[in-house]
Amino acid sequence: xxxxxxxxxxxxxxxxxxxxxxxxxxxxxxxxxxxxxxxxxxxxxxxxxxxxxxxxxxxxxxxxxxxxxxxxxxxxxxxxxxxxxxxxxxxxxxxxxxxxxxxxxxxxxxxxxxxxxxxxxxxxxxxxxxxxxxxxxxxxxxxxxxxxxxxxxxxxxxxxxxxxxxxxxxxxxxxxxxxxxxxxxxxxxxxxxxxxxxxxxxxxxxxxxxxxxxxxxxxxxxxxxxxxxxxxxxxxxxxxxxxxxxxxxxxxxxxxxxxxxxxxxxxxxxxxxxxxxx
Length: 278
Ligand code: NAD
Prior knowledge:
By secondary structure, the protein is of the alpha/beta class. The protein contains eight helices and seven strands. Helix 1 packs parallel to helix 2, helix 3 (70-84) packs parallel to helix 4 (123-151) and helix 4 (123-151) packs parallel to helix 5.
C-alpha cells in the first residue's frame, strides 16, 4: 500500500517552472500525483511538465498563467478541470524579490548616499514584490480553493521564507510580503477549517537561487559576498539548503499524515530560526 495515498491526486504548482517548485512538482509526481506546472513562462512550464511525464510516467501539463490576473487563473482552472477533472492540491510557489525594493546598505551609518538606503527604495518595487508574493498567493487560493471547498477536500501550501519571522536587512518589501503570507495562511486555515480544506506553509531557509544570487555571490568573481558569509555563519548546519530538502515537508503537509494540521508554517532552514548567533 502507498502510505501517503497521493496516487492520482491533482496538484497545481504555481511558479512550477522555478527552481524550488519544479523540484516540488517532481516529488509529487514521484508519488503518482498528476501535476499542473503553472507559470508565467509557458515554454519553461511545458519543458518541466514534459520532463516529469518522461521520468515519472505520471500525467503532467505545463500551462501559462499570471498569478496576479484572476481571469488568467480562471482560464487555467477550466483547462485543468477539463483535463484532470478536479484539483486536490495547490502549491502557491510563485514569488520572489526585486532589486528595486532592496536597499544597498544594511544600516544607515551616516555617510552613505540617501539613494542607497531606505529613502532610495522605489514604491514600484514595493508594489511588485507585495503583489507577486501576497496577491499571487491570494488569487490562486481563491480560484482553486473554490473547487476544493465545493468538493469538501483539498490542501493549500503557501511558500513563505525565513524573513517572515524576523526581517532580513535590505529586503524590506520581501520580508513584509512573506510575513503577510504567514498571516494569511493562518487566516485562511481558520476560515476553511470546517470545509475539509487545510492551509499550511513552508518557510525555506537559504537556498542559492536566481532571486538571491545577486546578493549572496559576487557577480564577477563568484565568491561569497559578506552577506553570503553572514548567512552561512547564522545557519547552524553551515550550508545552504537544496530544493530536494523541502520535499519531505511538502509530502507530509499534502498527505493524510498531517490530517489534523492546519494553519502552521514549518521552517526548513538548517537551524537558522533556532540560532541566536551565540
Ligand atoms: P524562481 O525564480 O526559480 O521561480 C519562480 C517562478 O515563478 C519562475 O518560474 C517565474 O516564471 C514564476 N513567476 C514569476 N512571476 C509569476 C507570475 N506573476 N505568475 C506566474 N508565475 C510567475 O524562484 P525560487 O527561488 O524557486 O522561489 C520559489 C518560492 O520560494 C518563492 O515564493 C520564493 O519567494 C520562495 N523562497 C525562495 C528562497 C530561495 O532561497 N530561493 C528562500 C525562501 C523562499
